[in-house]
Amino acid sequence: MKGIATCEATANIAVIKYWGKRDDELILPKNSSLSFTMDEQLKTRTTVMFLQDLKEDEFWLNGKKMDLKEKEIAERMKQLDIIRKRAEINEKALIVSINCFPTAAGFASSAAGLAALAIATLKAADLNLSGSETSIFARIGSGSASRSVLGGFVEWRKGEKDDGSDSIAVQIAPASHWPELRNVIGIVDAGKKKISSRAGMKQTIATSFLYPARMQYIEKVIEEMKKAVIAKDFQKFGEITMRESSDMHAVMLDTWPPIMYLNNISREIIYAVHELNSIEGKIIAAYTFDAGPNVHIYTTAENVARVQKMLQEYRKCCKVLKVFKR
Ligand code: DP6
């Protein structure tokens, strides 16, 4: 037996989105992305044990044994073999994972899950790597997982190299930099999405006319966003966040056949946020949507109650999140 480790990771919510790969195998993105890693309410705890007597790898998720031969699971667990090879471990692994997400929250837990798996496997294999080095292994499971390896405000740099060694996550600012920042989750639909992010982004690259234009300005938008966060300029931050979310959903809609993750309630919430901001005469709330209809509204502590009240008119609001320290 080589080792055993239990580690946790939490979900992250991107403000500059990752949508498109330049390498499907190594999960290398077309563009860099930025996110905040969220607090422990969206957490996965994973234990990895390398055991001599185990004949096959075993993976238990929320008390259910998963089929590691299933294509999607096998693809996402590739990091296990890569780490095992690097650490020269022959033993099979027993992996036990618990998602502490609000039940039926309708949020994909893959980023937290695959980040926790990378952190725990590396630790069990006795490989002491930095957060950025660890992000490479999380990325192989799922691109957005690379950002969940670190806390606070995180950039996943797209990198230039073919082997992906420079496609890493880097912390731009710790959680303590902007302690007033909050993310209010609004559950619009808790169901499973019709098309996975993985399949959807591939289809966008293959068919969207707008996508190449997005690639031309996105790195510049990233620089603007970093400046806004460093300056804690909520006006700039809010505008870039909302426009960037719409930009990603525009290329999704421009995909053929079109991909539509937002529904009528999501769209009503977009209008309601603009209405709230216009009553206030400044941006106090900024929505962002991933590959689904549920909304994440970034705001500051003093305005949480107003955002919650606004959301409750549409659906029950689920959680208020803070930025996670690591
Ligand atoms: C819309 O990380 O789930 O949430 O790398 O194929 O596993 P794979 O995709 P995934 O895509 C997330 C896309 C997004 C935007 C983002 O989080 O940046």
| Fold-level CATH name of the largest domain | Ribosomal Protein S5, domain 2
Q: Report the radius of gyration as a whole number of Å.
A: 19 Å
Let me know the largest β-sheet: 5 strands, mixed
What is the share of helical residues? 25-40%
The number of helical elements comes to 10
CATH structural class of the largest domain = Alpha Beta
What fraction of the residues are assigned to beta strands by DSSP?
15-25%
Q: Average pLDDT across residues?
A: 94
Architecture of the largest domain, CATH level 2? 2-Layer Sandwich
The arrangement of helices and strands along the chain is: EEEEEEEEHHEHHHEEEHHHHEEHE
Identify the overall geometry: globular
* Low-confidence region ranges: none
Ligand inventory reads: ligand DP6
What is the domain tally?
Answer: 2
Look at the helices and sheets and give the structural class.
Answer: alpha+beta
Terminal-residue CA separation: 29 Å
Got a strand count? Answer: 15
Strand order of the largest sheet: 1-6-9-7-8
